[in-house]
Amino acid sequence: MDAGVLERLEARVSALERKVKGDFPDHDQSVVQRLAIINNKLTSAIQEANGDRVQEAAEILEKINSMRSVLESAHIKSVPMHSAKLAAVAETQANEVERVENLTRRVMGMFETYNRIMADIDRKFAFWDQRLKVAEELICAGKNAKQNDSTS
Length: 152
Fold this sequence. Notes:
One of its GO terms (biological process) is cytoskeleton-dependent cytokinesis. The protein is mainly α. The chain has a domain at about 1-75. Helices cover about 90% and strands about 0% of the residues. It has six helices and no strands. The protein has helices spanning about 5-20, 30-50, 50-65, 70, 75, 80-150. Helix 2 crosses helix 3. It is rod-shaped and about 155 Å long. The protein starts with a helix and ends with a helix. About 0% of the residues are buried.
């Protein structure tokens, strides 16, 4: 590589470093050393920023390790086998719910019909009761009139 190209490259890297991190106290360091310093600073900054996340991830991993016996149990391992059965049961349940809803609608229709019939019967009884009262009053009035005629 040409020395001029290398110097220009180092100058560009130095300019970029100054823009990113500011000036370094020692300008005689090689590019590799400066990049290593930047890498170390970036790594420490990332570790500080992600410290809480790393701690949370470690806690989650500890919980998973403590639950390993549960996760590896026969119950968990048999889930794929039971999922097909569960899907069939869920479909059956959905069909039964639909059937029950249809029956409920039919029963409600029957209750409405029953209530209409009973209301009609009630009105007819009230009508005939009123007619019978009028007829009884007429009969009683006729008897009273006969008794009044026979006594006079």
